Amino acid sequence: MGGDTAGENADERLARNLRTLRERAGMSQDAIAAAMAERGHPWHQSTVYRVESGRQTVRFGEAADLAEILGTGVARFTWTSPEALVADFVTEAGARLHKSGSAVADAVAGLLAARAYAERVLAAHEGSRYPRVQEARKDLARRTELYDPAGCAAEGERRYEERDREGDGDDGKDAQGQPGVVDQQ
Predict the structure, then answer these.
(1) Helices marked H in 26-183 — which ranges?
(2) 177: which DSSP letter?
(3) Residue 35 sits in which domain range?
(4) Contact status, residue 120 vs residue 161, Cβ threshold 8 Å
(5) Looking at the structure, do residues 62 and 103 belong to the same domain, yes or no?
(6) Mean pLDDT, consecutive 10-residue segments, the chain of 185 residues?
(7) Which residues contact 108 (CB under 8 A, 6 or more apart)?
(8) What is the pTM of this model?
(9) Which of 56, 86, 107, 135 has minimal Cβ neighbours within 10 Å of its Cβ?
């Protein structure tokens, strides 16, 4: 996927990619200018505007500092529109996977803490003389057996398969429900 796209030259690609990366990072033009000024470049908000609009070129040292500020490599500024679109889509899929995996890990940690607490409560009230407490203990013991991590993971898989059968699972759409980007080589 090299070469120019629709007449887009290297400076135009840098301008477009800078704007895209800055916006994705949630940074204003002022913030970029300030970060560049901290690195010794006499940049202002108007400089960022001129670069992003293709009216001002960027020296290699400036590009290297911009890449560092935006947490990327200099080569990212050379990507064509289609390449950037597909690469960003693939990266987003990885980010979604990471976010979901982290949420599962947090949920498992919460589940294990709740189970440990339930087991302490069961032990503390094992010999209660109150019939309603004993009934509550039986219910809590049943729930403790029911909500183990492996059982909950199996239930999650069952729910996913059910949603997938109903057409509500992963259908190749992005986080906003938009069709996935396909690399058309």
Answers:
(1) 29-38, 45-52, 60-70, 81-124, 131-146, 149-165
(2) S
(3) 10-79
(4) no
(5) no
(6) 61 94 95 98 98 96 98 94 88 92 95 96 96 97 93 92 80 54 60
(7) 149, 152
(8) 0.61
(9) 135
